[in-house]
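Sample 3 of the quickstart, ligand magnesium ion:
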Amino acid sequence: MEWRDGDAMPAAVDGDRIDGTGSPRKIIHIDMDAFFASVEQREFPHLRGKPIIVGGSPSQRGVVCTCSYEARSFGICSGMATSQALKLCPNAILMPVRMDLYCRISEEIFKIFSEFTPVVEPLSIDEGYLDVTANFKNNPSAVSIAQEIQRKILQKTGLSSSAGVSYNLFLAKVASAMRKPGGLTVIHPRRAIAFLESLPIEKFYGIGRVTARRLERLNIHRGRDLKMLSRERLMELLGKRGHYYYDVVRGIDSREVTPVRKRKSFGREITFPRDTNDLQFLEREVSNISNCVALMLSEEKLWGKTLTLKVKFADFRQITRSYSFYYPINSGQSIEEITMHLLRRCVAEDRRKIRLVGVAISRLFSDASGMANGVAVQQEFSFAREVTQLCYG
Ligand code: TTP
Ligand code: MG
Ligand code: MG
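Result:
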């Protein structure tokens, strides 16, 4: 059996053991195909084979959450305004989002994963990483496990999924996207370097369209071009992520599959029915969101150190403004005070109308983190005032 870059693994062949000598890890990434849309097509058989969109209504400035593969051939994609999607394909059928149903099915899928290994990391509602180096079935073939999982998902939920198998998370994730829908792609350790060298830049997971275009303008089209750059140059181009891509393009991604991902941030955002730069209105909204974020923190008994305000303008361009405290904070008053100043600064600097605002808090600490809570509580408010003066005085 000859391995070629990105080759799908034929079901009958089992030369796919990627433990070999040197025993690399065996990582599987599974991602459901057109998840929300496939669920709707399962629920309503007359929608099968048709272009369907799951998303918000165009009259409420809704966006496309996802669409069936039939709709994708018209150029529709996630995140696009529903109104634009319906212009591209006027016959597309728009279905409302039924999150409860998708969550229930997601649970079923993750339950299937857990029958094979305890080391499962959910990445989103429809995808996860599995480390099957050791597994409940004592099956040495990661590929046959992936096939079995795909079969079980289909049997139990009636839905199709795609799988990627390799020895690290990055390669498994890239692999699963290569033969959608219903595909299985293996990247063998021996072929990883050649595969990465020929991988187009926009296929590097985490490099968005804008960054890919920027890199292409610098004649960086594929992994091999990325590999020519020094660590320092990559840091210049990609910021902190430069380190990660420097290693990844050399086949190194030492991240572990981490079973329960700790929450890294809390956030809330709101899209307004009409674009606005009415400061009073914006202040009221930001105040509400700030208090909502504070409530979420207190419910989870968490404290956060960095506050971020996100502002998306009518032209969909967005900016974020952050502030870091010395001490973790959690009160609505502190959050509101800082986000309000960040908002006023944004509005003063840029008079464009605003479409959406969001508030997020990150660098979270739990009560058990060893922080002197008493001190933080006492200092929190006066410190927020100090910060405000430092920032804007
Ligand atoms: P994805 O796995 O990114 O997309 P998908 O499953 O619809 O299609 P693919 O076959 O390419 O994997 O996302 C999973 C679900 O998450 C998707 O069905 C809907 C939801 N989603 C959004 O609500 N908004 C988004 O911007 C994206 C990308 C996904
Ligand atoms: Mg998917
Ligand atoms: Mg996904």
